[in-house]
Amino acid sequence: MTRFLIGSAIPFLLLAAGCDWGSSIDLRNESGSVVAEQIRKVAAGNDFAQPGRWETKITLNQVDAPGMPAGFVEKLKTQMRQPQAAASCLTSEDVKKGAFYVGEENQACRYERFAMGKGRIDGLLRCADQMGTRSMAMSGSYARDRYQLVVTTDSQSAQQTGAAGKVSVTMTMDAHRSGQCLGTEGRPLTRL
């Protein structure tokens, strides 16, 4: 479940770094593939995000895991009290290809809603498979050179029903373009 909790937030690290373009996306009950394609279309036709060095800070706001040992949850909270930071280099080619979107394209997942435009982003992704059920809600604001996004994930294990198998995490992601790439950054995650 940890992959979903943290990994599914990654698509929006550079996705929401967006733009002031007039186009917007407003989708209901769509797959990750459809959402990705719509974002790539917008990115290909506009000055979607500013290439350069992007610095991202992820802050864990809340963890609720009633089925996990209290010591484990406290250790996680202690480790995450300090914001996690990362830097990546987004090239002009990355922007043109929409290479910053690496969201859930799993057949077991659907975006109940995904809307992005006029400096706001809002979405709800739901997944159900043999591992259990998961949801990820996101809401935030963006401009061409910065964004802030609050992400809440809720997971329910198929192996442990009820409170014992439930995990809920809320985090805030803040990012900004800090200048030209220095060559020391990581690359944006991509499947292209």
What does the model show?
By secondary structure, the protein is α+β, with helices and mostly antiparallel strands. It has one domain. The protein has helices at 2-7, 11-15, 32-45, 70-81, 92-97, and strands at residues 25-30, 52-64, 84-90, 109-117, 120-129, 132-143, 146-157, 166-179. The protein has an 8-stranded antiparallel sheet. Helix content is 22%, strand content 43%.
Describe how the helices and strands are arranged:
Blueprint: H1 2-7, H2 11-15, E1 25-30, H3 32-45, E2 52-64, H4 70-81, E3 84-90, H5 92-97, E4 109-117, E5 120-129, E6 132-143, E7 146-157, E8 166-179
Antiparallel strand pairs: 1-4, 2-3, 2-8, 4-5, 5-6, 6-7, 7-8
Give the overall pLDDT as a whole number: 78
| Computed Rg | 17 Å
Helix content: 10-25%
What is the count of β-strands? 8
Strand order of the largest sheet: 1-4-5-6-7-8-2-3
Low-confidence stretches: 1-21
Largest sheet: 8 strands, antiparallel
List the secondary-structure elements in sequence, H or E.
Answer: HHEHEHEHEEEEE
Number of helices: 5
The tally of structural domains comes to: 1
Strand content: 35-45%
Describe the structure using short key phrases.
22% helix, 8-stranded antiparallel sheet, disordered N terminus, 43% strand, DUF3617 domain-containing protein, 8 strands, 192 residues, DUF3617, alpha+beta
Short description:
By secondary structure, the protein is an alpha+beta fold.
